[in-house]
Amino acid sequence: MGSYLLKLPFCLSISSLLFTYIVYLFQLFTFGDAHMGWLLISVLMSSALLFSSTHPENRMHRRCVKNILLVIHAMLAGYGTFLALGMPRPYSSILSNAGLLLLLGIVAGIYQTSLIPKRAASVNVLHALNITIGIVLAIGTWYFVYLFYLYSEDGNGDLWKLFVPFVFYGIAYIVQMKVMGTQQKRIAYSVAVIQLVIPIVLLQIWKALAAGEGML
Predict the structure, then answer these.
(1) Taking the model in full, what pTM does it have?
(2) Per the structure, how many domains does the chain have?
């Protein structure tokens, strides 16, 4: 089991490095755009994940650190996929599909790192639920932010409101884990039910902002 837990992050780090360099070189030689900042951060994060997967005795192998690296990887891979979509065909189709596969692998890595077989099933269920809601909120938030920047004409003074549901989600996640540690499962489950409404709240905030900007 331990070797399996190391294989996926190792494969993801190598795949991320290859994907980053290929997309960067295509962007550079096709459009003349040097996305140096994205390249450096992506290579740094991929190298950190590679180091953590090949040195299990190191502190960087801890689950929380590895999850942070995977989440950052997801954002960087998402940006790389967005860059790939702007390339001429067939390169855009090949690289964007590769980026989506990489994102799916990263999501699988987050689940794998967070769900511990030896832990109580109820705790793993809560972790899985929270990870899923977090992924939905992250995708929805960044998509709405992109649309807001694309179509807004009056500035972005209210943009911070889109991140409010994510903050409440994080607080609720922490509360659940603290409560589960004291065996107060009913409170934890009640908070989990409330969390299911947070993506709907995000959608309603977006509709209110879009209506105010004349986008709806």
Answers:
(1) 0.69
(2) 2
